[in-house]
Structure prediction request, 77 residues.
Amino acid sequence: MIPISLKKCVAIVTLSRNNLVIDLGTLTDEYEKEISIHTTATSKDGEKTILAGKEVTIVDTVKLDGLTKGTILTGNV
Prediction:
């Protein structure tokens, strides 16, 4: 009987034939969370369109989903 943990699933995969053993590695149910970014640029009053030639302040709201507290991310703007 193979013990199975409900918290984490691990499978060690090997193939063998005629005394030849090939280790195919270990499979786990761990995965990297997907991080997504959403951005919305509007004028100060929430409008998404502006008149050409008019001075306007643009407010860009950026929302990141899927982050883990304490994780340091780097990137280029």
